[in-house]
């Protein structure tokens, strides 16, 4: 799987991709992540990526041409349309992202992610250039960079080999392919935040009785589909 990110703030991604599980995944060759600076796709000497909105209004709008050039350079012209590749635009107007969508995206080979910024992005990007518009929730951020990080982490961890202990992960994937989240504890068994107060680990988890433990986990699980 290759993730191609188009952004005017490539530095936002640097730290994260160099210091997380995603770094290891890239070293192992399980995924590839490439960050592309939108300014590298401009042709004027000021590397202008934004302009005033037609019709008037506040703020600046990301221009169409550099995004068009960036997307065109990343897509294999011999493979358009390519069922294994998607161009995604992050916008609060998009379809709300969830675990099921992440599983579908994890089966593909290339995801080109466009991060919007400023007050908006020329609507022709949404209309002609991208295959899907995605929102990570009903709130407005200042740009698509954090949504892209959320998206990549959610999709990447479903790709085989990204998370080391895949057997453990398998154990938590349900028949319906949802992900089973239940409370977990580690040592100490009893923690005393102050005198006379004890925060304890549920007894059943210390019992060694696997059947009972499984029942308890089932009861306290949330299935994320
Ligand atoms: N850009 C700004 N807010 C966003 C959101 N909630 N989801 C995706 N992209 C965004």
Question: In a nutshell, what does this entry contain?
Answer:
The protein has helices spanning 11-18, 21-28, 64-74, 99-105, 123-129, 145-156, 166-171, 210-219, and strands at 2-7, 32-37, 50-51, 61-62, 85-96, 110-115, 120-121, 132-135, 179-181, 190-191, 199-200, 222-224.
Features:
225 residues, alpha/beta, Alpha/beta knot, five-stranded parallel β-sheet, 8 helices, 31% helix, binds adenine
Could you explain the architecture of this structure?
With 225 residues, this protein is of the alpha/beta class. The chain has two domains: 2-156, SPOUT methyltransferase, trefoil knot domain (Alpha/beta knot); 176-224, no CATH class. Helix content is 31%, strand content 22%. The chain has eight helices and twelve strands. It has helices at residues 11-18, 21-28, 64-74, 99-105, 123-129, 145-156, 166-171, 210-219; strands spanning 2-7, 32-37, 50-51, 61-62, 85-96, 110-115, 120-121, 132-135, 179-181, 190-191, 199-200, 222-224. Strands 2-1-6-5-8 form a five-stranded parallel β-sheet, sandwiched between helices. α4 links the parallel β5 (85-96) and β6 (110-115). It is elongated. The two termini are 22 Å apart. Bound molecules: adenine. Adenine binds at residues 90-92, 116, 135-137, 139-141, 144, 147.
């Amino acid at each position: 799987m290759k993730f191609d990110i188009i952004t005017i703030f490539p530095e936002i991604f640097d730290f994260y991709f160099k210091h997380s599980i995603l770094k290891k995944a890239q070293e192992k060759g399980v995924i590839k992540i490439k960050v592309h600076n939108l300014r590298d796709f401009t042709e004027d000497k000021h590397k202008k990526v934004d302009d005033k909105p037609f019709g008037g209004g506040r703020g600046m709008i990301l221009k169409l041409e550099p995004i068009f050039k960036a997307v065109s350079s990343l897509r294999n012209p011999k493979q358009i349309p390519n069922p294994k590749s998607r161009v995604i635009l992050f916008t609060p107007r998009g379809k709300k992202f969830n675990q099921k969508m992440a599983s579908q995206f994890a089966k593909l080979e290339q995801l080109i992610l466009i991060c919007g910024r400023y007050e908006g992005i020329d609507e022709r990007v949404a209309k002609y250039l991208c295959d899907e518009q995605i929102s990570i929730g009903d709130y407005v951020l200042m740009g698509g960079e954090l949504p892209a990080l959320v998206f990549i982490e959610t999709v990447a961890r479903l790709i085989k080999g990204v998370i080391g202990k895949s057997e453990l992960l398998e154990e938590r994937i349900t028949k319906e392919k949802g992900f089973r989240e239940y409370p977990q504890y580690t040592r100490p068994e009893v923690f005393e935040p102050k005198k006379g107060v004890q925060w304890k680990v549920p007894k059943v988890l210390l019992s060694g009785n696997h059947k009972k433990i499984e029942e308890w986990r089932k009861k306290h699980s949330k299935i994320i589909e």
